[in-house]
């Protein structure tokens, strides 16, 4: 199977990030104390445990405004390096890049990649003529 250049780039970035964080490049999928793993839909920390929601708010200078909430609903795990599928996300108002930043077409990083503990929520607002579809991408999870 041929790997696309975007997938190769993404995997390279993940590997470099793991090296910079002094993590082994092969991530254990065990659930022992302090373990880390790159999540897939079949792992114990599943997509339903991270929720992305957005709702319309009052308009800003005639441009619709949206409130976004990204919550870690996992009762006993943390997440980091959370990426969201975000299309060509852009906003008429400034969004704090420490909270949400488009790092590539269709790829936005949440909380600057920092850890989001159980029960924590990231909130930000953006303005655009239409809402962007946002969905969970990849992330690292630990217990």
TrEMBL record:
Q: Tell me the segments the record calls region Disordered.
A: 29-60
- Signal peptide location: 1-29
Signal keyword on record: yes
Which InterPro entries does the UniProt record give? TPD1
Q: Name one GO biological process term.
A: cell fate determination
Keyword entries, A-Z: Signal
Recorded protein name is TPD1 protein homolog 1-like
